[in-house]
Amino acid sequence: MAFVLFLLVLTISTVFADEDAFIGVNIGTELSDMPHPTQVVALLKAQQIRHVRLYNSDRGMLLALANTGIKVAISIPNEQLLGIGQSNSTAANWVSQNIVSHYPATNITTICVGSEVPTTLPNAAPVLINALKYIHSALVASNLDRQIKVSTPLASSIILDSFPPSQAFFNHSWNPVLVPLLKFLQSTNSYFMLNIYPYFDYMQSNGVIPLDYALFKPLPANKEAVDANTLLHYSNVFDAMVDAAYFAMADLNVTNIPVLVTESGWPSKGDSNEPDATLENANTYNSNLIRHVLNKTGTPKHPGISVSTFLYELYNEDMKPGPLSEKNWGLFDPNGNPVYILRLTDAGSVFANDTANQTYCTAKEGADEKMLQAALDWACGPGKVDCSAMLQGQVCYEPDTVLAHATYAFDAYYHQMGKTPGSCDFNGVAAITTTNPSHGSCLFLGSGTNGTLLNSTIPAMDSKSSDSPQAKFGFLAAYFVAGVLGCAVLFLNGLI
Ligand SMILES: *[C@@H]1O[C@H](CO)[C@@H](O)[C@H](O)[C@H]1NC(C)=O
Ligand SMILES: *[C@@H]1O[C@H](CO)[C@@H](O)[C@H](O)[C@H]1NC(C)=O
Ligand SMILES: *[C@@H]1O[C@H](CO)[C@@H](O)[C@H](O)[C@H]1NC(C)=O
Ligand SMILES: *[C@@H]1O[C@H](CO)[C@@H](O)[C@H](O)[C@H]1NC(C)=O
Ligand SMILES: *[C@@H]1O[C@H](CO)[C@@H](O)[C@H](O)[C@H]1NC(C)=O
Ligand SMILES: *[C@@H]1O[C@H](CO)[C@@H](O)[C@H](O)[C@H]1NC(C)=O
Ligand SMILES: *[C@@H]1O[C@H](CO)[C@@H](O)[C@H](O)[C@H]1NC(C)=O
Ligand SMILES: *[C@@H]1O[C@H](CO)[C@@H](O)[C@H](O)[C@H]1NC(C)=O
Ligand SMILES: *[C@@H]1O[C@H](CO)[C@@H](O)[C@H](O)[C@H]1NC(C)=O
């Protein structure tokens, strides 16, 4: 057994040793005020996000991403799958319109064909393999198959009995799709794409999965889950799920396809029956996930082989139907303000410190109006703040209140002074905040999105398209069953 494991580690590392782990971000667009592609890209740059995944192939986004160095995974929505999977020439047209016309200015690295097709559109599953093959052969014809990988994101619910991971296997009903899929991924050097949602696994486990285990928080040794077959210790749901995917592939005799996590995240707000959708948990999950991925810890089965992951997601999508949590998976609001400030001091390369730690100076709500007016007059006079944007008819005139005008002037002064201590005080009527006070086209200094950068040659997004993380309960079901049977989960009670 040890020897077999060793061999597996070896194969995967030789295939993917040269790839660096990355954190990317999914960009869903079901927002009532979706930012213009140029603003989206300004936010990505400000946050040093270098990998994104789109849920379609929006032309405006692809143009805005050109010459930015950002690597782009684009998607073929499920609605287009049938057409492409049934016609080689439709696939070739799609590639020529959406890839060839943008590459290499836009660095498209990956095509996600469909989304969770077996579990959400079982009838389309038979055409999925053809769609993958047709897209790939069109890439070959354009000599782009080495630069661009083709795969299809799957829901983790296709993996059954995922704990202990060594016993995981795919729902055999899907073998007619999975066997040729794995063969295709193997022969084209592509990834096994998996969406992993420990939040749902935890929610559905009725207390079997500890919250800390889902959130990557340290567990006491006697709470760590141990796979009785391999004696591997699992300290979080994410790793267990990735390893379950490796074992499920091995069950079909495939051992050299790396896992790429196409979606993972945690909602920051929920309805009253979703008490664990909180800012604190979302921040903990995403911060820990980012550190885990970038630290190249790997999983217990494949230590050191890190699993690149696309966070779900960039923006809160207020138009998403369903429970409140559905609208609150985002890291940013439509103005580019962080919903919470990720704790990433030791992660460095992604999410720039300065904007992730962006601060603004605002007038205190309820402060004495005379003191505010005096401070405002001072800032716009001796303080040398350019207050012209607040003149009647200018972008920051409305709302015409002392509070709003003072906030504008205080923030400008604070940034003008390099955010030095004491530059946001104004006799106690000002306070530092992380909430961007920009409104409409009145943009405050330091806000990531700069409306003046709008490039009118780039069209706005024309189609709302996104994915829903609803009902992805693969891990939970298996974990729960295992827990009930009491035979598979071995909690180490000082056993080793
Ligand atoms: C695109 O990204 C890949 C992967 O990082 C890199 O090797 C390649 O040089 C990039 N291509 C362009 C045109 O920037
Ligand atoms: C599909 O088209 C490509 C060129 O785009 C060609 O190389 C390939 O042989 C075709 N495949 C089938 C099954 O017709
Ligand atoms: C396996 O997939 C089939 C087809 O979707 C489904 O009917 C069945 O319930 C699944 N089995 C389990 C154990 O989830
Ligand atoms: C995997 O390999 C074993 C042993 O060679 C064989 O018995 C089994 O049928 C294979 N399974 C598949 C799905 O190919
Ligand atoms: C990063 O990895 C090292 C070993 O590779 C480990 O000691 C350390 O705890 C890890 N840090 C985090 C934050 O996971
Ligand atoms: C963020 O801050 C940390 C520690 O202060 C530093 O090591 C890292 O390089 C910074 N990252 C960026 C992108 O500035
Ligand atoms: C965030 O900003 C505060 C105040 O300017 C500063 O003390 C702190 O070190 C910053 N944190 C990071 C991670 O840059
Ligand atoms: C926005 O960008 C323009 C052009 O680079 C610059 O002149 C302007 O000062 C910026 N505005 C803000 C609020 O950052
Ligand atoms: C606008 O975008 C187009 C296409 O990417 C580019 O050619 C043009 O230089 C851009 N204009 C400005 C002002 O940035």
From TrEMBL:
Is ATP-binding included in the keywords of this UniProt record? no
Tell me the domain of life. Answer: Eukaryota
Q: Which residue positions does the secretion signal occupy?
A: 1-17
**Membrane-spanning residues where?**
473-495
Name the coiled-coil region(s): none
List the record's Gene Ontology CC terms alphabetically. Answer: plasma membrane; plasmodesma; side of membrane
Checking PROSITE patterns in the record gives: GLYCOSYL_HYDROL_F17
Topological category with respect to the lipid bilayer? Lipid-anchor; GPI-anchor
Molecular function via GO: glucan endo-1,3-beta-D-glucosidase activity
EC number per UniProt: 3.2.1.39
Q: Which keywords does this chain's UniProt record carry? A: Cell membrane, Disulfide bond, Glycoprotein, Glycosidase, GPI-anchor, Hydrolase, Lipoprotein, Membrane, Plant defense, Signal, Transmembrane, Transmembrane helix
The chemistry this enzyme catalyses reads: Hydrolysis of (1->3)-beta-D-glucosidic linkages in (1->3)-beta-D-glucans
Biological process terms in GO annotation: defense response
The cellular location(s) given in this protein's UniProt record come to: Cell membrane
Classification via InterPro entries: GH, Glyco_hydro_17, Glyco_hydro_17_plant, X8
**Which Pfam families does this one have?**
Glyco_hydro_17, X8
Residue ranges occupied by any X8 domain in the UniProt entry = 359-444
Entry similarity comment: Belongs to the glycosyl hydrolase 17 family.
Can you name this protein? glucan endo-1,3-beta-D-glucosidase
Q: Write down the species.
A: Penstemon smallii
